[in-house]
Amino acid sequence: ILVPLDFSESSLNALETAIAIAKQHNATITLLNVVDPSFMFGFKGVYYISEKTIDSIIDVSERMLNPIMQKLNEEHGLCSTMEVKVGLVPQCIARAASKNDVDLIIMGTHGTSGVRKYFLGSIAQNVIKISSCPVLTIPSNQKWLNFNKILFPIRPIRGAIEKYDFLQKLIAQTSASIDILILASTFDEKEKELLKGLVKKLKTKVARD
C-alpha cells in the first residue's frame, strides 16, 4: 500500500485507513512525500530554486516521516518504508506505485492549508487518471477503519463488474454488505438485457463469497 503524505489532517486520516487495511491483509506500507517546487511559494511559474534549498526541504520531510514510520513498525507491527521524491505530485505518486509494485494507493482528497489547497483536489483526480493500480481516496476530516456498507455502481458497459474482484479482496475479512446501483442513460431494451446479465453475474459472485 502506498500512502502519499503531505502531513495534513486529510493525508493522516488516509494513513489511518491504510493501517487498518494493512493489518487485515498483512500488507506493507510505503510512505511517500513529494517535494513539488511549483507549490513552494503558492504559485506556478519559472523561477530558480537552489539545490541547497531542495535538499533542506527533503531533509525536513525525512525527519517528519521517520517517527511516523517508526510508529507503524513498533506500535502497529507493520513493515513500512518511506520515500521523498522531487517533482510533480501526481506523476511522482504514479511512478512510485509502479516502481514498488504497489497494489493500492490510499490518499486524502485535500491537503495542506493556504494557496496550495486549491490545487490538491485535482491532484487526487490526476493520480486516479494515470495510476496503474487502484486508488482509494479519503475525504478530509474523516477516516474509515472498517467498511460496513459498500455501494457498487453498474453501468451498461463491458467489464462493468470486473472491479468487484478487487473489492472482494478489500472486504474479504469484513462483514460488509453491498448495495448494487444500476445506472443507465436510456434504459432501452438492449441496455436492460445487458444490465440484467451483469447483475446476475455479480449476484453469483457475491453469493459465492
Secondary-structure topology with pairs:
Blueprint: E1 2-4, H1 9-25, E2 29-35, H2 51-74, E3 80-86, H3 89-99, E4 105-108, H4 117-130, E5 135-138, E6 149-154, H5 163-171, E7 177-182, H6 189-208
Parallel strand pairs: 1-2, 2-3, 4-5, 6-7
Helix fraction, binned, reads 40-55%
Shape: elongated
Number of strands: 7
Largest sheet: 3 strands, parallel
| Poorly predicted residue ranges | 113-119
How large is the radius of gyration? 20 Å
Distance between the termini: 24 Å
Continuous helix count: 6
Multimerization state? single chain
Question: How are strands sequenced across the largest beta sheet?
Answer: 1-2-3
Mean pLDDT: 86
Structure classification: alpha/beta
Order of helices and strands: EHEHEHEHEEHEH
Query: What percentage of the residues does DSSP assign to strands (E)?
Result: 15-25%
Distinctive features:
single chain; 209 residues; alpha/beta; 3-stranded parallel beta sheet; two-stranded parallel sheet; 6 helices
Characterization of the model:
- Residues 113-119 have low confidence and may be disordered.
- With 209 residues, the chain is α/β, with parallel strands linked by helices.
- The radius of gyration is 20 Å and the shape is elongated.
- 24% of the residues are buried.
- It has helices at residues 9-25, 51-74, 89-99, 117-130, 163-171, 189-208; strands at 2-4, 29-35, 80-86, 105-108, 135-138, 149-154, 177-182.
Give a short synopsis of this structure:
The protein is of the alpha/beta class and 209 residues long. 45% of the residues lie in helices and 18% in strands.
